Amino acid sequence: MDIKQITPELAVSPQISPDDVADLKAQGFRSIICNRPDGEGADQPSFEEIETAAKAAGIEARYIPIVAGMVQDDDADAFGKAMAELPGPVFAYCRSGTRSATLWSLSEAGKRPMPDILAATKAAGYDMNGVARRIANGGKTPTDTGDAQYDVVVVGGGAGGIAVAASLMARRNSLNIAVIDPADVHYYQPGWTMVGGGIFNAQQTAKTMGSLIPDGVHWIKAAVAAFEPQNNAVILDGCRVVKYDRLVVCPGLKLDWGAVDGLEDTLGRNGVTSNYRYDLAPYTWELVQGLRQGRAIFTQPPMPIKCAGAPQKAMYLSGDAWFRSGALKDIDIQFCNAGGVLFGVKDYVPALEAYVQKYGATLNFFHNLVAIDGPGKTATFNVAKPDAAPETVKMDFDMIHVCPPQTAPDFIRVSPLADAAGWVDVDQATLRHKSFDNIWSLGDVMNAPNAKTAAAARKQAPTVADNIVADIEGRSACAQYDGYGSCPLTVERGKIVLAEFGYGGVLKPSFPKFLIDGTKPSRAAWLLKERILPPIYWQAMLKGKEWMAKPEALSAKVD
């Protein structure tokens, strides 16, 4: 038997024989559901034969036969009723297991989030994206074929989504474009490091979403439930369907706070904070100002994360504040990084190490935060150093700044657009999807090996816009993205190490060395971060004005 576990209460498989029933009993199953009609196959045992074996083994059996490809709404209701009535765990089967998995998926609609349903069946080897509309519609067959149609649909109203919509309108303002995003507020997330360092106010980093949607672009204020790329459709929560000629996918990352045991229960109190959330960044500065002695821990999870330098930026600005107040000598700074290096591009490491020494910080590599006891002021790390046995380490803290683990959003990971790791699968130069040639992606959610920063999205948006317009005009892709990303490392108040690099860690400086030498801390780079980049973000990038972001012509050498 090829048994596939979907939940602890249900497993499915292809056709079984009466001889398999005793083994099912031995594995702990207490009920069997048959979803295959008798006589479907020449060598198929009848349900009566399975039921007789089940009774002999002390297992209940129920017959809910489904014609292949004909799962009706009433069938899903019957399956859900059987799951509620039969003693569990339950084993269900049909010819391949697909009908059983489909019935479960539809019966669970409305009881659990659709991404969870799709993820559970996908892990068992069954792709339920084909019934995603029905799941979104509470398990019932929808009666509509589409609520709206657009030339271009953009999923995500963050930095990448607004920028690409604006860049498209700047090129061809006759396009019928829609941006799908449920959020009321758009955040300038690069500013949260400065909020946590006492430089910006949180309010400076937020604007209403409605005020930023480009003129002429439709805003669909809804969450995406699933994709049907074969039908050029996006399914929204509530089963509304939006059709497109071309699709851009850029919803950003999921911050997986729940992956650290105890973290969600203590965020924003007990000395536990994070600059990765708008409402928590001010608490970081409050803690820094209040700490006069004790231990401060700064954590970084396994990659990928948005802005890989942000966890240590928090450490440097905090260390600088304690240095200026005279408290540094009484504060033990610990940087706990799940990775093995301080920064991924070696050219910037010497300058950063000098500040690590200045602040007396201890670097703990291969330390991955797995649990926090807020009231007990204890953090637990799994330590997995090369050539050493894994161990668990506990550290006491007075303050801890946490960078949460990060993944692609659930509705992306379980979609047909995702690669094996759950990221949107694109060509790293053109940012076009590898399997669906009318889909592009940019920002944090796609799988190109670049740094996930707003600066990267600023370069990616014009590239995607150029290539979409070329496609509309029947031309081949004409622009390429070189992997550019920027990480302004705030090493002290008033100085920044401006890391700029592309694919493979190749340095990509925007300015001549006499203005800004990115490998060294400089006041000029600080002024860029504090005074120049915010208005460039709000007034240029999100308005389709591509200052220092013009697309690079596609090289003939790029596949």
Automatic annotation (TrEMBL):
Keywords attached to this Swiss-Prot or TrEMBL record, sorted alphabetically, are: FAD, Flavoprotein, Oxidoreductase, Quinone, Transit peptide
Q: Where is the Beta-lactamase hydrolase-like protein phosphatase-like domain?
A: 2-110
CDD domains per UniProt:
PTP-bact
What is an example of a Pfam family matching this protein?
BLH_phosphatase
Q: Which domain of life is it from?
A: Bacteria
Q: Which residues form the FAD/NAD(P)-binding domain?
A: 150-263
Biological process per Gene Ontology, one example term: sulfide oxidation, using sulfide:quinone oxidoreductase
Cofactor dependence:
FAD
Which GO MF term does the entry hold, naming one?
FAD binding
Q: Does the keyword Ligase apply?
A: no
Checking NCBIfam families in the record gives: TIGR01244 family sulfur transferase (TIGR01244)
- Recorded protein name is TIGR01244 family phosphatase
Q: Which organism is it from?
A: Aliishimia ponticola
